[in-house]
Automatic annotation (TrEMBL):
It holds the Pfam family MerR_1. SMART domains: HTH_MERR (SM00422). Residues 19-87 form the HTH merR-type domain. PROSITE patterns: HTH_MERR_2. GO terms for molecular function: DNA binding. The lineage of its organism: Bacteria, Bacillati, Actinomycetota, Actinomycetes, Kitasatosporales. It comes from Streptomyces rochei (Streptomyces parvullus). GO terms for biological process: regulation of DNA-templated transcription. This is MerR family transcriptional regulator.
Amino acid sequence: MPSRSTRPATPLDDDDYPAYTMGRAADMLGTTPAFLRSLGEHRLITPLRSEGGHRRYSRYQLRIAARARELVDAGTAVEAACRIIVLEDQLEEAQRINEQLRARAR
């Protein structure tokens, strides 16, 4: 997934801060913990773990999971939805790099 170059001042402002438990994340997305686990099994998102071993999700991960849910709700298999999201991300990154190279060539 895309990297971020600047870090926020506090964890509350950090999209990558693992603030949400699995149950809370599932509630926010209107899905089940099993769905979130399946996204991890397909390596779309890898939640951090609390000291007790519980999965914790960031806002950034929840946005990715929400996109996966949109695809699944539209009839796409979970595995295919995960692959689509990875490919979309790779395309976006390639387009960004291409634009940078074009800008340098001008």
